[in-house]
């Protein structure tokens, strides 16, 4: 973990301290919340039923003055910081635009953009069987992704309701 200074450098370059969050734009808030909370086990740190645009969103949104419904989800210990975030507790934000439906689809790993995100799990085969029995689609079943003398990483790629890939990774010590 980097020191508590606001800017850490290594050979003149900025060095990230940790992930802050991942924001996923979703078509159907309730369907996505069910998937991430009830099937993948994320906990809701905060929900915002109508987040109003403050102006800066115009530079990152297709439509100006949009309102959003947001769920901030965590997969780690609780934090009293805004949205439950901290350097030790990255979060996922489900962002559902209100009004006209969002455009676009999830992308594949050979396309430009963020193609997936990964989370560590224990018991990958059991999780795969359980999620499959609940109708979750998988692009790949559990398989060995990497192996060294220290251990093996097993992985599977699930698809969320909008086709966004979630890589489920399990570290199996040697």
What attributes does this structure have?
174 residues; mainly beta; 2,3-Dihydroxybiphenyl 1,2-Dioxygenase, domain 1; 2 domains; 4-stranded mixed β-sheet; globular; disordered N terminus
Structure write-up:
- The protein is mostly beta strands and 174 residues long.
- The chain is built from two helices and ten strands, in the order βββαββββαβββ.
- The protein has helices at 29-39, 124-133; strands spanning 9-10, 13-14, 21-25, 43-52, 67-74, 91-97, 116-120, 138-148, 151-159, 165-173.
- The chain has a four-stranded mixed sheet, covered by helices on one side. It has a four-stranded mixed sheet with strand order 7-10-9-8. Strands 1-2 form a two-stranded antiparallel ribbon.
Short description:
The protein has 174 residues and is mainly β. It has two helices and ten strands. Helices cover 12% and strands 39% of the residues.
């Amino acid at each position: 973990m980097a020191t508590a200074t606001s800017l850490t450098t290594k050979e003149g370059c900025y060095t990230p301290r940790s992930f802050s969050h991942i924001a996923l734009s979703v078509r159907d808030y309730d369907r996505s919340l069910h998937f991430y909370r009830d099937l993948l086990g994320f906990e809701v740190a905060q929900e915002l039923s109508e987040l109003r645009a403050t102006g800066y969103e115009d530079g990152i949104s297709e439509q100006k003055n949009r309102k959003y419904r947001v769920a901030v989800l965590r997969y780690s210990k609780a934090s009293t910081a805004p949205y439950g975030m901290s350097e030790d507790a990255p979060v996922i934000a489900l962002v559902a635009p209100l009004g006209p439906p969002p455009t676009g689809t999830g992308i594949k790993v050979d396309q430009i953009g963020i193609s997936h995100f990964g989370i560590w799990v224990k018991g990958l085969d059991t999780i795969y069987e359980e999620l499959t029995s609940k109708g979750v689609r998988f692009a790949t079943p559990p398989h060995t992704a990497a192996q060294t003398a220290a251990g093996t990483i097993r992985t599977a790629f699930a698809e969320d309701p909008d086709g966004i890939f979630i890589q489920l990774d399990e570290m199996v010590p040697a």
